Every structure is written in C-alpha cells, then in structure tokens.
Amino acid sequence: MFKRAATTIAMAAAIGVSHSYADVVDESFYPYREGAPSYEGLSVGMTINASNADQFKEILDPATYEQLKNGWWEMKVGETTSFDLHPNYVEATRKNLGQVSLGDELGQINGFVAGRPFPEEPSADDPRAGEKLAWNYKYGYNWGDSAAIYPFYWRYRDLESGKIERTLKFNFHFLNYKHRVQHEPVPEFADNPSDLFRAIYVQVLEPFDVKNTQLLIHRSSDDQTADNTWLYLGFQRRVRRLSSGQITDAFLGADIMIEDFEGYNGRISDMNWSYQGTRNIMLPFFNHNELELATDLEEKDGYQFVDFGGKGGCFPNITWQLRKVYVLESDPIDENHPISKRTHYVDAQTFTLPRTLIYDRKGDLWKSWLIGQAHPDHHLEKNKGTGVSIDDAFSMLDIQAGHCTTGQFKGQVDPKLNEVKLFTVQNMRAKGR
Amino acid sequence: MRKINKMLSALGSTAILAGLGLVNAQAQDEEWDMAGFVENATFYRDGAGISKSRNTGQFEFSKDFGKKFGMNNFRVSGTLRATYDAVYDINDDEYGKNAGGPRSFENAGSTTAQAIYGGNGNSPWGQSILGNGGPPGAVPPGFLFDVSRNPNQGLKVLGEDMHNPNAGVTIGVPVRPCDKDSRGCGLDDYMDFDTNDLRFPEFNDQLDFIRELYFEGSVPTGDMSELFFRVGKQQVVWGRTDLFRVLDIINPVDYSRHNIYDELEDIRIPQWMATAEYRWGATEIFDDLNLQLVWNFDEFRPNALGQGGTPYSILDAGSFFRAMNNCWENGCTVSNFVPAGAIGLDDPGLIAADFAPGVIGIRQVNLPDGHDQGGIKLEGVYNSVGFSLNYYHYYQQLPVLRGDIVSMNAFTGEMADWDHLIAFDIDFPEVDLFGGSLDFYVDSLKTVFRVETTYTQGEEFANTIEPDLYSESDVFRWVLGIDRNTFIPILNKNRAFLISGQVFGQHLLDHELERAPLGDIGMPDWEDNYTMTLLVKGWYKSDTISPQVIMAYDYEAGAGTFAPSVDWLINDNWRLIVGFNIKFGDGMGDQEFDDCRTCNPFPPFTATPAHADPNQSGSVGLSGIQPLGRFRSGPLGSASEEDEFQVTLRYRF
C-alpha cells in the first residue's frame, strides 16, 4: 500500500514537474496562445498620433510617445501576431531547461548548450534577473544560425529638413559558430580554436569614399574575453584591428555605433543589467508583404524595401503591435563609455530588441533606436518557415542632434550566403583590392 | 555606359581570357562594377610657387564571373590612371623648360678667387681656378671640360634650395626636363624624363596607365580551405604600418608623386606578379591560417625618387645623381674642392675645380634584369593575435653607388679603377628579407598594438672607409604602432578621435664609423635611428568633415613634419581636402659628413697634410653638407624647405 502510494506520488510529482517545465517553455515562446494583450481604446487599424497619444501613453515607450505627441509621425496599429521561433530552438530550450545557471561573476554562464538559457519569467526579486534577460538576448534566435542582409541600405538624414545626406549600401553577414539548432553543423563547427560564439562580417558597397571597407567581428564564447574586431580600409588595402573605442563610436559617420548593431552588440560583461518590469508596449512588428513599400530602391527579384516617412523621413512606414515586453536597463561598466545607460524594450516572445532608448553621459535621452521586425512567413520566399524574426527596417534618431540614420533591409536566412570562410581576416584581404 | 560595358566585356572576355586561351568563357549576368574619379591637386610651396597642379583621372572596374575554369569567384579587376601635372607648364621657371640659370661656385676663403672673380669670390660654372679658369696649359687635362657642350645655363647648385655651401662641395645640377637639357640624363631608363614624361607620368614604356589588371579565383579544397590565385599587374601589400614601410616592400614606391605623404595605395608601383594562397581558414589551432607565395615576374623597377629639377625628389637624390651623371659625361664644376695651397697658391682658402668627363661622377645604372623576385608569407590569427612570418628575395629598391669602375686619373690621364674615387655605377643589390608581424588588442588599455620587424641581408650603403665607397650591412628594422580611440570632449563629445602613434627603429649591424684627423669617416647612415609618427584624426557632421594632424619626427636628423588638414566630403561625389605641410627642426644644412674631398684617390697628387702616407688613398674626413649629409638628414630633413599649402578637389563617379 505504502509502496503504491509512494509510486503514485512520485509519478504525480514527475508529471507535475514535467508539465511545469513544459509550461515554462510554452509560456516563454508562445505568450499569445491564450490571446493577445489589449488596451482600452486600442483597436487594430486605428492610428495613434498627436491627437490621441496621451490616451495611449501607458503603452508607448517615452521617446515614441514624445515623437507622436509632437506630430513627427503617426503609428498604425496592427494585430498582435505570434512570431514563432524555429521549433528546433524551442526544443533545445526544452531539452536544456533547468540546466543553466549564472556564474559567480558578471558574464559567466554555466551549463548552456542551446536554446533560450533562462525561459522562466523574470522576477523583480531576483537581483540578477536583468542579466538572465541579457543572456536570453545574446543566445537568442536573432538571425538564426546564420543570415545575411543582402543588401542593406543606410541613409543619413537631417530631421528638420529631411535632406538625405548620404546613402550607404552594405552586405551584412551573421554566423553562429556554436549553439546552432537548424543548419549543419549542429550544434557547432568542429574547427573553432578560439571558441568563437559568433561572427559578423560587413562589406561596404557604396558610396565611393567608403567602398570596399569591411568589418569583421569575432565574439568569443567566453563573454569575459574581448571581441576581436578588424576593419579593412579600401584606400589602405590593409586590415586594421579595431580598439573597443571604435566599437562605441559612430560607425562610418552614422548615428549608430558598432555596439548598437541588432539592438546591442557587445558583451554581457560590459554592462550592468537590471530588470525594470514586464509591460505591454507597442512594438514595431509587422508583415513586410502587407506594407506599402518603397519604390525608390529596386531589386532585380522584385523585392521592395520598407519605406520611410514622417518628420525628416526618419520613421518607417510600418504597423505596430501591442506586445509583451521586458524592460531591461544596461549601464556601461566602463566609466569612459559615451553613454550612461540604455533602456531596452525586449520583446518577450522573440527576445529581439525592437526599441532601445539611449542616454548620454549626463543622463539625458540621446538616441531613439528602432528595429522593425518582420514575420518571416510574410517576407522573402526563402525566409518562410525559418522561425527568424526578420530585422527589416531601422531608425536611429539622434534627438539631440536632430539627425537620424535609417536602414532598409533585405534579410535573407540563407546558409549559402554565409559560408564560414567569409568570416576570416584573410577573406577581407581577398575581397579587397 | 553601355559602350563602356561593351568595352570592358571585350577587354575582360577577349583580351584577358584570350590571352589565357579561355575565349569560350561566358560571363554571368553580374555586371561590371565600375567607379572612378577625376581630381585636381594643387600645392603651393613657400619660395617656389606652384609645386604641383596634378590632374588625375582614374577608372576602376571589376567583374565577378562566378564559377569559371574550375575556380570559384573568377574575377577580373583593373585600374586605369592618367595624370597630367601642369606644374611643368604653369611654373616652368622653377620646374620646367626655363628652370635654373647660370651659376657660380664657392671658393671659400680664397683670396685668389676674390681677386679674380670679385664679389663673393664665386667662380662661374666651368671657369674654376683649377680648371678652365686656370692658367692655360698649366692645368692637367683631367680638370678641363668643354663649356660649349656643357654651358653655364639651366643649372642650379646642388642643395641651393636648402642650404649654403658652407665651404663644402657642391656641383652644378642641370634642372630642365631632359628634352630641354639632356645633361645628366644619360642613365638609361633611370631619371631621364622628358617634359611629357613628367607631365604624363603614367604613359611610359611600362604602361603605368594600367595601374592594375589581374584575374583571380579560388579552388575549394574543403569546407574551410581553398587555393586562391591572383595573376596580373597588382599591388601585394604586406605589413601593418602607415607612412613608412618595413614589411610592405613587394611593390616599389613612387616618391616623386608626393614624397612619402600620399597614400601608399596611390604610390605603390604595380608589378606583374602571380600570387597563390592556400587558405586553411580556421584549424584546430589557428583561427585563421594561410600561406602565400608571391612571384614578381615583372622587370625590376626601383623606387621612383624624382629627378633633378622636379618638385618632389626625396633626399634630393635625383639632383645629386643628375649632377654626377653630367660630371661623368660632360664634366662639371665642384665648389671648394681643393685647398688653394695644394696647387701652390699662397692662399688659405678652398677653390673650385672643373672636372673633365670620365673622372668623377656616375657612369651608368645597372638595372637587374632578373625576373626572380619572390617570397612567402605565413599569416594567421592565433589566440586573438594576428601574426605573419615573411621571407622575400628582392633587389634593393633604393640605389647604391658602387665606386668600382674604371675612370681617368685627373692628373695623369691613366685609366684605372681608383680606390676612394667618387666615380660610380648605380646598382641594386640582391636582398634577402626575413620578417614577421603581430597585432593584438589589449582591452585594459583599450589599445591596439602593431609590431613589425625585419632582418635583411645584402643591403648596401655608402661607406667612405671602403675603397669602393660602399659596403654591405645587415639591417634590423622594427616598428611599434599603437592605435587608440579617445574621446576629447572639449573638441567633440559625441565622436572619439583616432590617435595612432608609431615608432620606427633601424639598426645597421655592420655599421662602420671611424674618427679621422679631419672628421668622421665611414657610413653616413645612422647606426641606430628612430622615426616617430603621430596621427590625430577627428570626425564631425556624420563623418563628412574630418580634420587631422599628421606629425613625423626623425630623431637623429632632428627634423620633423607637421601636416594639418581638413577633409570635407561635400556629398557622395565631391570631396575637398585643404591642408598644410610644414617642416620643422633641422634641415639638410645642419648635417655634414665626410664628402671625400680628402679621399686621396689619385695619390700622391691628392694627398693632404693630414694623410700619413701620401701614397695611400683613403679619407681623412673633411666634411661638408653635400653629398652625404642627405643620408643623415633623411626624407624629412632633406625636405626642410618644402613647406606647402595644399588643395585637392576630387569628383568620384
């Protein structure tokens, strides 16, 4: 009798735990399964602008609210949709659930294999909750195992006059060396002597003065190891190693620093992280193919880029969704860092960083950073089913300087565009002249 | 544009591929990538007027043909450049057909010369006391030359733009283009440019208007590895330094374009070369590893140093060589060459001498005819440290004067190879270079470090101790560079400044320097020398305005350069650069070295009281600025009088 009871209790406990684990993962990856969030007065198809911004202030980040209130642009409200990440990534999360922990020091993590390291809801009582969210971002499914933005247009714009000062054309490539879940080799490359986690390779195609400039970033698996970054300058025909000072500096004169790429492109150990709460916030998530797209940049295959409008042409013509957000603050450990802090509005489902506010060293709001997310099933044919939330349009607005840099993406989740040999110093020399 | 496409298609698919026997190649859909610019660079030199009015047109093209001939990414690339430097027309009094004039030569402290010539006692070209101006019949034949063939016109005194003779030797330099004045232009294919050669420097026998034209492709050998080829006229860049070169020695450099100050990209002289690289990519040990073989099958090209009478003649070597070639071919006047007492005058001073042809000077240039320069480089990244190991066999790109030629004894007329006589051929010895480089980032200092070092065997240097006035020395060179991005809030609170500093060191392992009765003799090059460079560069207005300061300082020469400039990117097409290039510190006039006046090449006639054995040649060390002070002054000090205001306007398309 006792034995049967004990077995029953054990089985029940096991089932209970298993069910609990499943809930954690499902709740992390499918937050809208039980329904989309709502807000009083908000409806799909409506527009938030200067006339009604006050009504929705609670679901707008402060910079977006100010911009709408000032009439700089108008926000079209779309339906909240689920951006399901690739099932392999979800499965890897499930498989490794409960096996990951933070190390004693900032930037240390134990037991991580693949997937989302900390799918559990963050707790305000957890002093390291912010750090866990940062790890979830770092090991997120941001561009999948590899992807290319091919091509990628940046435009430097004057907020007041709307004048386009410069147009740069790039190719961007991303590759994960480790923690891969979809494309071979899974879970990692065999020859990886420096234990790299990820690499980013950038090639400038236009205009003439920066043509052939290339950037290569190697990020170590050991977060406490500094990135290795190289720049190839066409006019010097030489690969130069970059110091971290250049990583926190305006990249090629844009309003963006290398550290801003993808929302945050640095180490966990470079920042102090703090979780500021969970909210429902309007975020730039949309279906690319349903937008009114730009007609001034044409691709041979008919692909059209996201268009921009509003004041100075600094704002993407997209739709926004009310989504579950973790508010995450990061302040630099380096006292000489040019900013005092960032406030990231982390999309809880994808762990992308669609909205980030950047504050200068005095603590004043300096830049408003927007990365629009397109659903992969409503984008290029090759992106369908990839489970990658596609970075599709960006705007970095320097509020203090009255200037912005906008980005128009042709994101392609295509391993063939991101061969591992592309991410070598020698490739930079070969690609240069 | 369609026509250009057709032309390029023809060039790429027919000319190049036909040359390879690959005429059946079909281009893929990808179009030619084309770009170019036109540019005017106008420089104004203090005291000389316009020193450059260079109009350049450059056209770059490339096309990726995809998979062809068993290679991936088969690509054809080229760069064409045409230049017209109008300075030879605009400022022809200084650099063109009307440059120079009649010149007189110093007879320092000579009472006899004072009495004969009056004024400051300087004697006109070809009218020296020991020469045509001496008593008829009393002057040995080796001190006479035909002034009607070698007249006193179109001349400058060697070094006159930089210093006074200071009782040292100087020579007359013909300074007009070689079609206007052929004197001193007798070195075949070396410093023998006509006006049009100077105006249009790319249109020469080497077809330098084709700056680059090559094909390349890779053969995959694995997931990570590949074999890469590039064949054609190209630049192969080794090393990690700016401004000065340590490992970057494969292509010679054209210093006549703008001394050391133009981007190396623009002044490397492309060569026909073949490179093959095996790229392992990441391995079990290295993050990146590749092995490169380079074969330069082109004819040897030395560094272009500029010629006498041109605005950019690094070390003023071109003037010296032209003067010396004129000495050899036509004779020449040399100031302050002989103590007046040595020819029996009751005179405490020095007097100039007229040398007959074939006595002193530079006879010819011996350009190596081997097509055998080449080397190997192993390069990679290990534990986040970039590294390379290099070996290169080449011909010294700077000339050396070898005094082992047969010439005429000025006193006896006898023909022999006289020891310690300043009669030379120009040679370019074979050199073996062993080197390596590193770069790494130190996070705690937020600083990138760059290190390069080379050890060469076979380089030759001037050496007044040696009978042939040159000797070989192994050379150890190194450079340490640091790059740091630093905020200077008072100047720009949003954008960091790039601060890049470099220290170059050079050590001659077989350096010789001895104390002789009248001064030092031996090698004028410093046994150890250090050159520092500093770049501070900032950016404003979305990087469209970029002020910068470049400073360089030669420690032993005590000479430096301060070059502030502002680069304004007006829009995607137009770019304006305005700057100054200011020299400071010591000039060439502050450096003296044994000038071999007291080398006693024709013993006992040329022996001095300081010679212990009047029948033994060898220098006792009387020194002057010319000709060897230039080696101690270096490229910075020898350009001390070349302060310039510079404007460059470029339109890119």
UniProtKB/TrEMBL annotation, chain A:
Signal peptide range: 1-22
Signal recorded as keyword: yes
Keywords (A to Z) from UniProt: Signal
Keyword Protease: no
Annotated Pfam families: DUF1329
Stored CDD domains: LolA_like
Highest taxon in the source lineage: Bacteria
InterPro entries cross-referenced by the UniProt entry: DUF1329
Name the record gives this protein: DUF1329 domain-containing protein
Organism: Pseudohalioglobus sediminis
Classification of source organism: Bacteria, Pseudomonadati, Pseudomonadota, Gammaproteobacteria, Cellvibrionales
TrEMBL record, chain B:
Protein name in UniProt: DUF1302 domain-containing protein
Keyword vocabulary terms for this entry: Signal
InterPro entries: DUF1302
Species whose genome carries this gene: Pseudohalioglobus sediminis
Signal peptide: 1-27
